[in-house]
Batch of 2 targets.
Target 1
Amino acid sequence: MRFILTLAFCFSSLSVAHASVTVYNQVPIGQATGTAQSAAAAYSGSAAYDSTVLNAPPIPNPAPPNQFTLQLQSSSNAVQGLSIMQSGSFLGFSIETSVVNQILGINSSFLQVPFLNLMANIKQRAGSVHVRVGGNTQETATLVDSIPDGKAIEKDKGLATNPTQTPALIFTREILYMLANITSLAGVQWYLGVPFNDTSNLRLGIAEAGQAILGDNLIGLQCGNEPDLYASHNNRPATYSPYDYFGEFGVLVQAINNNQNIPVKNKLIGPSVASGDWTPEMVWDTGFIPAYSNSLSALAVEHYPDNNCGAAFQLGAIKDPQTQFPNYLNHTAGKLLIAPYLNSTAIAQAAGKPFLMFETNTASCGGFPGISNAFGSALWGLDYGLQMAHSNFSGALFHVGGQSVYYNPFTAPPTNQSAFHQWTIGPLYYSTLVSAEVFGPSNTAQIIDLNANDDNMFTPAYALYEGGNLARVALFNYMTDPSGANTYTATISIPSGAPSQVKVKYLQAASVAQRTNITWAGQTFGGNFESDGRLQGSLDVQTVACDTTANTCQIKVPAPSFALVFLNDDVLSEVTPQNPLTFATTAVTKKVNTATVDAAVLATSNGHSGLEGGPRMGTSKTTAASNAAGSVGNARPAMNALVVMAMTLGALMVGTQR
Ligand SMILES: *[C@@H]1O[C@H](CO)[C@@H](O)[C@H](O)[C@H]1NC(C)=O
Ligand SMILES: *[C@@H]1O[C@H](CO)[C@@H](O)[C@H](O)[C@H]1NC(C)=O
Ligand SMILES: *[C@@H]1O[C@H](CO)[C@@H](O)[C@H](O)[C@H]1NC(C)=O
Ligand SMILES: *[C@@H]1O[C@H](CO)[C@@H](O)[C@H](O)[C@H]1NC(C)=O
Ligand SMILES: *[C@@H]1O[C@H](CO)[C@@H](O)[C@H](O)[C@H]1NC(C)=O
Ligand SMILES: *[C@@H]1O[C@H](CO)[C@@H](O)[C@H](O)[C@H]1NC(C)=O
Ligand SMILES: *[C@@H]1O[C@H](CO)[C@@H](O)[C@H](O)[C@H]1NC(C)=O
Ligand SMILES: CC(=O)N[C@H]1CO[C@H](CO)[C@@H](O)[C@@H]1O
């Protein structure tokens, strides 16, 4: 985003010998030295665990009608304005390159178990999960053959002394093997970025090794991250224009076309403008799409609806979260956010290219306390996602930063606490999980915004068709009213014939301001430091009897909540795993977040079966418990892994924040 490269990153001294954490933080230029450093990663003081609870906005006056009818056709043939076909992986994640070793694992044999679980949850519902590893740090990152200390990724020490520059990263193929192994366990498909800081010195190693190691699971290579901000970030001359980007993109296309080690030529993604200094149209007007059509796998933009740079970095006015909160709690939020892209989604569709929101979240510069980490954001993110799908985007990625942001879909514990703390799951992970169920695994889902309740902004609804048939109905209630007076009843009317009953899952919390205990169909990832990535609690799916004479089904939607109505049991069961695929954490120390995954097992593994509790995994609770009691086995490597992980992460953490 706009402000990122105006920041200096600073690193406190390391104390790896005792595996203690590295406190890292970011401060504006000019304050990069001396006392301005604050302990961003200090225990629960970090933004990621902020306990601010705002007040839910009052009920609007007049309150929306609490009864309304949704007249639906059972076949898509009769419906005008349905979206293009969407997949369950529509919502995914964008992970800054510099934090992969906090979130994904250290190398191909040390993976973060909670991350595997979080991805497997989505894969089991959607068929696949899309994750981008990239961001500003991709622009200067370089693939190297090896790093002397044996690490897989590291800040380039040569450049680290320059305080005005984002530290350049070097990484080895081991990072790509790690991604490949995550794919084989949890079905993740990856977007990567080709460094674009200097097109006279292209470094295509990531494309070469990426295709060789990830094969078809490398689904896109982003070329240029927010090029419209290059000039204002002093990465290009002040005159840098869409035509200059067009020219540089051409240099890269030529180099890839001439490179025999990059066999698949058409995986590129651009222009990824932040709509800061250029509109997408300014790029289309250069002839970008026809010129590079043979190389492009998708077109993309990146956008955040707001920023919290004032409070985070003294860059601009400080915004009061309580005042901002209502901006995230109605249906016009998502619509306004994507209005500037409707022309582009149509242009992309005409060109036969998917159009992606490659990086987004509640607000740049870390999000807002009490908003980005509250239930209201789960509703906002889901509605925004469904609105993008309705408007013919083909996917969107929620950004994941480090400890010093409020908006993470998931946060690994600070390094020195990974032995006794687990992960913290944020509202946007719930949005993503639920969206996987909204679209399902068929890749035939089509969605339409129903303009429900006379298009009332507090009670939006969508219908979903799968294989041409009405499959699901999605209902939102943005209000908070424990009295029940603003619970609404939506009457789903299907003149051609209603089923005798429907099933309903609810995404719920007591208030839009609630931070923890969000539940999806009765299950939760708990509060701060409470999750190993698996849903806890028993599944609660409601059955609602319909009126087969009137052909109506009446669905109650409490304030606040989201309800997903399944019109038949097939569309329910395809997104309701009977045996959730999980990777249990080892019990070596109390709650260890590190798996030991033997490369040999992975190399021969066909998907997930046979791995769980397998002899080399060291992840089953019983096995690990007996190991912990003294027998030789997996406990020792896992314990070493933990120590090493703490040391490695301490040394490697690179401050990253949007
Ligand atoms: C972890 O490190 C932070 C920052 O140095 C420190 O404030 C905190 O007390 C440490 N926590 C533990 C449990 O060691
Ligand atoms: C992964 O990291 C661990 C801990 O640093 C190390 O013991 C192991 O050799 C590494 N594996 C590979 C394949 O580099
Ligand atoms: C681009 O990044 C590489 C790797 O960090 C660096 O060596 C090079 O100097 C950079 N080029 C420019 C023009 O900044
Ligand atoms: C859509 O974009 C094209 C290409 O830039 C432009 O010519 C056209 O005027 C735009 N249409 C609208 C409605 O903005
Ligand atoms: C609805 O959200 C929009 C966009 O964020 C905001 O501008 C508007 O004030 C909100 N409306 C109400 C009534 O809260
Ligand atoms: C999405 O694309 C479909 C198919 O071309 C079209 O009918 C529909 O109007 C589009 N929706 C929007 C919001 O542009
Ligand atoms: C979360 O749920 C637990 C168990 O039901 C309860 O004890 C706790 O008070 C709840 N916390 C919040 C913030 O609702
Ligand atoms: C399935 C898979 O990709 N396994 C790989 C895990 O990583 C090691 C490298 O450390 C590879 O050898 C395996 O092929």
Target 2
Amino acid sequence: MTETATDRINLSAPWIDERDEELVLEVLRSGWLSLGPTGPRFESMLADWIGVPYAAAVSSGTAGLHLCMRLAGVGPGDEVITSPYSFVASANCAIYEGATPVFADIDPHTFNLDPAAVEAAITPRTKALVAVDIFGYPAEYDELLPLCERHGIALVEDSCEALGAMYKGKPLGSHGHPAVWAFYPNKQMTTGEGGAVTTGNEDEYELLVSLRNQGRLETSSWLQHGRLGYNYRLDDISAALGVGQLEKLDRILPARREVAALYGELLQGVDVETPLADDADHVRSWFVYVVKLPVGADRSGVMERMAAQGIATAPYLPSIHLQSYMRERYGFSEGMLPVSEDCSARTMALPFHARLERADQERVVEALRGAIR
Ligand SMILES: *Cc1c(COP(=O)(O)O)cnc(C)c1O
């Protein structure tokens, strides 16, 4: 770094304040660090905030997705359809239960599953569909849900990037099927590590609560386990942080929206495709700010030139089917999912969080403008 190098601008940053510290400290001082009162407090706040009857907190979004595979009865020999343009967890959850992930291609602008491609991927072995609301943009549930019903397929929503998003006027999570949330520090709100599954179905909720706690039966006495479960509990320290985050979520989300809107303005005239705007049916919750570079652009060169100015970016997202373990295990290769692969080659995440300052956003955009040229 030269002397003129300015401060580094990071990709993401959680919003942690004194209230969060206070809540965490309260739990620490209570001595009740797990299976205490703060877990249920967090869960009922989360369910209320989203507007769903039940929320089961878990140790991560990945754990939540795995439990949803158990809810759907996914097992060896089954196929689970999902999006290749996602975080690996949305496909891995099927593999954990011995099923085969089947990828359907995406829409090049929403980056979400193309319902026609999903339909074409259905076989007699298809057991579940994991639809992802990628980058906080709602997937097309009015098309996916009837498709699943017609074919007897369970629908699981990976809404890990979409807390606060709305589809057709209703919040994600409230459309009937189970939805999975994640609270890793780069998400809209954080518990450190953590996640949740929401559902409107009491039986599903009870099964989730049992499965996350080693398969313990609701009715059983101490250490009676009725089924194979996991330790996917969220501890009370993390839940306390979650309470603090939920208390300010109605400030965090608009702040993220404003940062996104300013990027939209600043990027006018820069040769990139900016994220799809909301419409009446789709209201995004801003998770990351991803731009698509023009065909033939040298993305790694652009990233290097921005990094030299202290600006973090990420080649976001790689297509899951081209990850080395996926290629080795299933023989997937280039050309299988051309839309996803093209997006993966050209999309790039810019620094983005609720408290990113205007001056930093201007620096990011100027650096990008220069780096593309
Ligand atoms: C963050 C995320 C998850 C879950 O991540 P964890 O780190 O396990 O909490 C799952 N799917 C998507 C699309 C995500 O972005």
